[in-house]
Amino acid sequence: MSSSPVIAPKKARPTVKAESKDWEYLLESKYNEEDDPSSVFITDNEQSILFLSQSQSYSLHKRKSMDTSLAGDSSLLTNQILTSVFCAIHLVYEEQKLSSLTWQNIPTMSPLLYRLASDLQQYKFLYSYALDNPTLFAKILLSKFQDTCEDGDLESRLPGYFSSDSKSCVFENLDDLVRTGSCKYPIPYIPGVTVRTERIFKIFDCLFNKGTTSSTVPLSPLMKTMFSASASGQDDVVEDKHLKMVDRQPAERVLLYMVNGGIDEAEITAWPPGVSLPILESLYQSCENPDLSLPLSALKLLGRTDLVEQTLPSAGDWKTAGLCPSTDPLRFAWTDQEKNNSQSEKDHSELISILEEGHQNTEENEQEKSSPSAGLDDNVTRLLFPNDHRMADAYNLLQSTKPMKILLTQEAGIDDREFMEQKEGRLAQLLNRSMALCIGRGMMMYRTQNPSAVDAVELPELELTGKDLNNATVSFANSNIELPSETFQWPRFHNGVAATLAIQDDKTSMSWVHINKERYTFPESSEPTFEHSGALFGFGLNHHLQELQTLNIHEYLQKSHEMTTIGLLLGLASDKCASCDLATMRLLSVHISALLPPTSTVLDIPHRVQAAAVMAVGFLCLGSSQRLVAEVMLREIDRFPSTETEVSPEREAYSLSSGFALGMVLLGKGDRMPELSDLNISEKLFHYMTGKHKRNYTYNRTHEYYSPSHSSNSNNFNQILEGDQVNTEVTCPGATMALALMFLKTNNQAVADWFIAPDTMSLLETIKPQHLMLRTMTRALILWDQVVPSVEWVESHIPFVIRQHLKDVQTMQVNHNDEDVDVDEHTILQCHVAIIAGACLALGLRFAGSQEKAAYVTLHHYVQFFISITKQPQMSLPSHPLEVIGHRLFETCLTSCLISMCMVVAGSGNLEGLQICRYLHHSVEGKINYGMQMATHMALGFLFLGGCRYSLSTSNKAIAALLVAIYPSFPAKSSDNRYHLQAFRHLYVMAVEKRLLVPIDVATKRPCYTQVAIQYLPTAYNNSPTIKMIAPCMLPEATYLQSIAVEDKRHLPVHVNVNKRPNKLGQITDDGIYVQLRPGFLPYVQDPKGHCTFLSRSRKRPPAAGNIKHSGDQLLSYLFSLSETDQSSLQKSNLSRLTSLLQEQRHHSKTFFLYLSLLQICCHIEDKMSPDPLSAWQIRLARNFISQSSNGSSQNNKNDPLMQAISVSLAKMFDNFVADKKSILQSVIFNRRSDASSRILTRSQSQHEKDQSILKEFRSSDLHKLACYLICNNLSLPLSDKTQQGFASPTKRRSRSKADESLSSILNQLKQLDNAQVPHLTAFQMLYC
């Protein structure tokens, strides 16, 4: 550190007196070279606050340097600075007018600006300030002006906007933009200061400016500072880019500008009504059909809360809400009370809370768990079926937890023991029906419950007891009837599947699945329950096994429980459908010996497990065309048992599963598979279907195992010696189904001809009726586009030889002629009903879930046809058709037609279908067949699929799943799986999709009614591309749907284009579509006929003056008094409509409040002693905007009654005002134009004193009314015209001389003012026009 002393710098010697050499030093210094001194005060920017680009004298002043100004006349610089200050304050003053909250500053600032304008001799501003503050009118009327400046000096003093030809009032410039579409001089704004002026004029410029030049221009500050240099210039560019988007409409550009500029609803509310009305009306025209891609803030600014709510995560919260009495069509007596009645609102909220508590108590009450309200009785259900209880009726038919009713009476001569045996026998029959209900209940309850994630699924118990007429319990506890052990295995399996299918698909936690395992599984030493086996299958169908680990899978499989293995394999394949997952494929291959290596250990796998594994492989490899899988499945269709252990009664089921799996692997591929052409799959399948000799057959001794004498159970299995023939009893169903799926929707006519029914009796006798049914269905599935929903199309499949021998189709009588003595009556009738059933199955699959009326009518016709056969009397015919056809085949045909009919209207809750299912449910006079009851209740489940929220799809995957589920071979008893594995009946889930469109009222968050327009893609069977329906309704498939639109007079429109936004369809079907009521309408539940809307309610007389409590009631009385005056019938009608509008809808629309404000302004102008002139500007702006909008379109014609009512009110007030002040107006205002030839408006002292005495009679309220009159009628005082004429250039004065020559004639016409019949407006037009 240095020790030298610190020398302090020298301080500059202060000077008191500035010298000229100091100034010369600054001019010659480097500071002057780097930075122009003139820029300190005067900028060279064309956007200077002193001089605009429109000013003609800007270049002249630019040549004046600062030094010459200081050295010369300092008064010129002072005037320039004072003028600039005046301009800045004037812009701030005009900014105050654009907010209703700052109007109170106008009376304070106007006197100051009036004084500045008077001192600067800017006389055109005086009239503007006097209009804003009428107390200044007296100064104008009594003032004397002199011509003290030249035109050049005047123009050099102000920029272009402040020139003599411009309009100084901001409202007047906005009015010019609306009326003429242009603004002569751009409106200046100070960035960061007059922000409201900038935004509003830019918005008006985008909406109404028809020219190419902008109506706004920014101004730079007087002095450049660091603060002003960092102004928001870059932000303005970002905001302005939205106004220049050529690909959007002006209203959308303005909307995006307002959103990005931070203009919210609160700021718009602060704008004066005349300013905000054109903006909001323009925006709300786009609100009718807004672009859904707009940001949420833009939709919220439009007032479309329905579209905003649609995108929120809480859009689906309405589904967990309890019943709401006010939206319940079954409880019309419970209506919402008026909001102004606090006690009524309190009672209403208490009522709702009581109902919600009651609803929670019923869920906790075990006795009410099985009631329809547990997931089915909600707001949507009551909207769907408001007039009946079909949902509850259907649920009761599918209820298996209540004891069965045994309606037997003890006859005379029968003792108690024998009567007890009768009741037990009847209970055994009813048990077949009760065990067959679970599949249908799973359909109806599909994804209707939302259980807790920490609780196990509640499985309903299968009730195996009954109640007689004396309410005594009947059971098999002490009965001699012994039921086989396998009787209840599959019903319990179905019960577990149905219980898990009722769970919504948002439960994916593996801990939740393990909770159910611990709850419904015996200890490790025992086997799992059948319910949990079915629950695993249900978890897979509901996609709840996605996180199941390999260790958990082996934990299930190591128990070797047949039902658990079936449920797990099918569940995993369903969860990973069409994924070709390698790990799952390895797991399935272990259970299929054909997929194992030749040297692998032979495993003893049950045939039912193998059939399930083969089907699972088909779903796992859906549409993959894998060669190995296709080759193996083709070979497995005609698999021959190799050992004695493989001889099983389920061989037909295994062959059918192999055929289904082959068809799924090659789903819809047809012949378009060159990589598999060498396998000749189609020819081999045709060979399996038609039979004859086996190809490349080598005799094997294993055929002996099919000998009737080889096995003790051979008689039960009814096995035959096959030899070298193809056993079509085994291979035909599987081959037929493989061809049906392989050529699905291919319209291959050559392959379809393979399935034409034979036209000779000898060939018909060689085909089994069930196989003929499958062939007819397969032919229609291949020729997908040629299926016609009509009776004629169904009858066209019946060969001529059958129709020839049918004497009467309705009674099914065969024509026995002498020539046809050998005609087999059984063949004729069985083939006839089988072909009809096959064609009906094809119709049901073709139009599944479409709600096609023609298909439904056709299928309903054949269902009634089959039912009519059962009702034919036994003695009327030689042989009853039912006995000839056979009960098993007849039940198969009947239930197939019934299922097909219900698939067409799936999820609709069709009442006729419910009645037929209920009839078959209770028609148990004879022996009850388990399979028929299963099919009947499956049809009932299709009708109420997922609580009428789901329907069926017709995609290739869906058709394959439906074909497996409704395969027309139902079990004879609960343990029967010979022809079709019962677990496959639940695969319909893979064809289910949610398609119920539920409108949600955005105000109440409750479902409601609305009318929607469904636009279809053009098809051969849909001549009308657009269909209107009342939602809640079922939507068509997405492949046939083009758009969905809410087109209801009570709700704002919503349009969803499914083609452009396919993901939006899934969102609105899951969460509902939110709708918003239009102003003036009530929901359909509260007002079904529309009698309570303001357009239909008769006008009521407003309350008396003593009973008026609200300002709205005062307006009603005011309008009612207007309608009682002597007006035309059209004006009376308009006023009547306006009165009803205000009476009914004063709390709904945002723009309505603007019109209400205009009416309030009208009342204030008439009633107040001193009306506000700023409010009169709002009347003028609104009137001109509505007039221009009505000329351009009819959209705003609805607002004409409002403006007519306001015009009537103002005209009445101004007529009285002019009549009262006529003499004063003539002497003070009109007479001042008599000295028209004088360049300077002068006044004698006597005239001045006379005017002072007359003006004393002019009160302040009169001046305010005069200002309002001049503003509303777009008139200017003569003083303003004379002032401009007096200070105009000689050229302007000469151009006006001719106009003044006719002044005397115009003044003579003022005498007509004495005539009371001449309106005041006509007189003023004669004066000023």
Q: Write out the strand line-up for the largest beta sheet, numbering strands in chain order.
A: 14-13-16-17
Please, how many helices?
60
Distance between the termini: 93 Å
> Strand tally, please?
18
Can you give a write-up of this model?
The protein is mainly alpha-helical. It is 50% helix and 4% strand. The chain contains 60 helices and 18 strands. The strands form 7 sheets. A 4-stranded antiparallel beta sheet has the order 14-13-16-17, with helices on one face. Helix 11 (195-208) links the parallel strand 1 (187-189) and strand 2 (216-218). The radius of gyration is 46 Å and the shape is elongated. The C terminus is likely disordered.
Give a quick summary of the entry.
Pfam families: APC1_3rd, Apc1_MidN. The protein is 50% helix and 4% strand.
